Sequence to fold (391 residues):
Amino acid sequence: MSVKYPVSDYTELSESVRRDLMDVRKSCTTDHYLTDAFLDTWSSSTSLTRKRTYRLDNYYIARIYDYTPPGTYPTTKITRHYIDVNSVWTDDGLTIPSGYVNNLAIFSKASLMYPFFGARTKLPDLTNFPAGTNIFFGFTHGGDPLMNITAFRLYRTDTGVVMHAVYGSRLMIFADITPRFPSDYTTTLYSYFIKLNEWGAEFYIGNMLVAVAIDIPEAPPGVKATCPPYAIAVTDTHTMKRSTVHIGINFPYPSPANITPNPGRLTLPLSPHFCRWGEDVPNPPRALRLYQANSTSLMAGASISSGSLSSHPVPIYGRTSKIFYFMANQAGTLLIEIYTLSGNWRTYDSVSVSAGTLCKYSLTGDAIMARLTFTPSTYPATINEAEVVLR
Fold:
């Protein structure tokens, strides 16, 4: 005898299976089981404020470090580690509550290969919070950033607020990108993007590249080129390219050694609607304009009245094709240098450039970084073109 089950049972089973298999979803968008409903507030028949509500547990989990004292002593208590993500993340943003909490972290349920992360948001003003207060958003593999991280970090120092691009496994490299960080970040929406590639990671604010990170086991680690225009950092261990989305708010206290209330409620005004991520390609091609060294000014358009002009380093590690294009209105010599693991710039090649003729130079060898220096034969000289295509 066959048994017929109510349609509602099949619906509940389908929903349960869908949630259990959520880890196979490799991208997050509002219209794929993230948005639940609209929360409409009407002040009149013609005045409406609309916000979204979400089913964030479809895609995310939330972790909290709570040091609330039990009230009676001596005692042993179990303190919750994971909480309902919908209780701390809404259309208004992600909020760490006041009290005895020092860490709130969001993680995606799915782990992603060569992922892309995008967030469009304002950022909170940390000026009135204590040194050590910070916000991370990007990727980690597991709950301990020391084991693997690729993220932006907004950080309150003893003297002010800085923005870092953070990358590494075992050793986190903090590249200071504050010089390219917009001054109105607390009042204006900006897009923050991270792309994790097979050789490292790229960090963008809007369409502006602000940092590149590379992992080379046993290499001398550190920031090898500073921002502006963009930082280039090298870490000395392999960093995993399969990772989970991570958004975190951290206070310096309370801690096991300092059981005092935190400095107060803090909100990262990032709506889930404007947090997008997904798997991507391992090595996307890029065309980069060459900047003057340690400057936001481009080489193209620059005038040289004496001496030479050098470019900011270009990250070429992991690229199979590196083609430079250069043109000036005067003849001269183009010096191509590469950066070695010993920390030195070495001459790779030197070529002659004809006046008014586009020079195409293919760097066939492999290296960490490369840079160009142009010395005109006649002054003044103007550079017309200076760029590189990487694949």
About this structure: The mean pLDDT is 93. The longest helix spans residues 7-20.
